[in-house]
Amino acid sequence: MSSSAPADPPTTGRQAAAPAGALAALVGSVFFKLATAAGLAAGGASLLAVCSRSAGGFAVDGLLLFALLIVGVWLPRMAFAAGTLMGILGAVDVFFALRLGAPLTPSQLAWTSSVSLTQAGWPAIATVVAVAFVLLIAARRRPAEPHLIGTIAVLLVLVGALGWLIDDDEQRRNMGLDASPTLSLVQRPSSPPPPAETIAFDAHIADPDPAWSAAVDVAVTRAPNHVVVFLSESTATRFVDAQTMPQLTALKSEHSLTFSEHTAQSPISIKAIFSLLCGLHPDPTPALETTSLPRIGCDSLPEVLTAKGFDAALFHGGYFAFTDKLAFLSERGFQRLVDGESLPQREEQWHNGWGVDDRAVVDAALSWFDARPDPAAPSFLVVVPLIPHHEYFLPPDAPRPFGDRNLMDRYKNGLHFADDVFGQLVSGYRARGVFDDTLFVFVGDHGEAFDEHPRNRLHGSFLYEENVRAPLVLISTRLFPSAQTSARPSSHADILPTILDLLGLPPPFHSQGQSLVSSSYVPRLVPLFTAVPTLKVGVRTPHFKLVHDEHSASDELYDLLADPHELQNLALQRPDVATQLRTQALSFLADQPRRLRALPLKEEAPWLKRAADDAGLELSDERVFNMVRRCVPLTTSTTTDTVLHFPHLNPPARSVGVGVLDQSRAAHHGPITIDIAETPAQPESESTTIAVDDDFMSSSRVIELDPPCSSLSVRVHPSPTGAAGCLWLAP
Questions:
Q1: CATH code for the domain defined by 607-730
Q2: pTM
Q3: What count of Cα atoms within 13 Å lies in the side-chain half-sphere of residue 692?
């Protein structure tokens, strides 16, 4: 008779739960580390740097695996659920690592609504694959020995420790590679605010170079009658040259004043618009000023100028709904606001999910200039083009002088196109005989990055020079007798007082900027801020830049004169400079939100809110055309018309928009049709019909009302499927 050893008892699902959860967490972490390593490699980091920095991040993951196994002894199902969730977080962070260079953090949550998965490309595909793999691992719950997972955890800690020994600790923290996807969601408490006596941020630069305050030559015999601000999208200073931007370069060579040390305080477009129009530094919080401070009582540039008799208009190639720009712009004194949706004859122009052809935007702006009631009145025009916005798309007929080999070539093609658009605008003023009577202000909203530092792409995630250096060029044959370049440190907050000074007007009392052409100019520190993916705050002079990362509590200090490419962090070698500038940066971080919120609010509610209240309707934030909009939600009846009345619109409504909600579009609920009529009906007046459908590019539409209407009736036609949409008006 033969005998055999007794078989091991089978592993139950309960016993396998904790190791299976730990394995899911491990797989998600590995996917995230592979994504961050890919970002480092794409940024040009050496193989040693990729390996050591990636390895350093595994120590935290090993400790988390230990924690899961220990919890699993008593609570295996809880350990399984926690491990699976950690694995999913790691897999989801593949997207954020590839797109933004770091895992999802609390600071970044405020920005995730603007991330368009429909335009995410292969990072989204990689993320879906990673999530599916983690879910497969978790769903199978195959028996796994705890000691095997424990051995892996020990190896991870050892590998992580080796990575820490090879790599510089502070450098690794700055790269963010020691952050786990799970712990990244636990925000470190912010630094305590500085004492009250240090909170006013108007810090002068200690011992400035005399060149930083050298006088500029301005011949103000008679102020120009017209002002044009061209706020160029994603335009980095280092790309402004005769080959890429020949029109601007030619204009710079004659009657101009160029500021070589101009810096955007934040690499976020809406913060640039806020700073430029209000003369204030941006809010150093993840919140957008359009949602957190739409009614801030700043005397904005258009409000100051319209009070002096100027006509004022703003034309935007993108969409106002993106970051809810109208909440801030609609009551700032502009008599005309036009974007890519409300542009007349939009359907005849090239357009996409980001906006419309900027050439048509300039044509519309020039038409506005021609149609003003008093052609002799002074005017203020702001043009905010769409291109070159990432993914650096262009209309099909646009020239592409740099080819299409890589993203940078496409970006430079976009800059060349934007330069042509600016030239078209200037030529329009020449043709109308007002070129010599106009001050042109060309300014970039922020820079653009192409892996000059590892994983630094686009613009919003870092505060390196490639992210924040933007051109500022003033052009006027009347004001500037020749071409000049000034090294005066400047920021977007200085543009408002500079324009007003050149027009002979005083700045508002609240302005945090100063006139860059004034004889009383004093060089100041420029505050810096971003919140994606972690909150970073800094200050810059033409000599030094300090950036403090609130998440990792680390500093980066660069000597910009000796190291213009910011390759050597001097925070440890120069603690005196780092401490002084960090104090100023934290002072700005603590004080600026309080300072902005201390300004009075506009007395009345925003225009659209007043219109909805008078109509007895509620507003809500709805996603339409991949953008969150403030609008009146509506659901079509399946059998009868629905009628909405807007009885008191002051000022009158100039445009009406309607859109299908994204979830209704995704469910194929079909079209929405509305009729708009003025009430009470005027003789010979007719209703206007707007129809939108559930195709993405046709899911929203804006029409102009000519003339504007002070009372409206909106009839919503029935729909068999009960399509859901929303309605918005603009003055």
A1: 2.60.120.1060
A2: 0.78
A3: 29
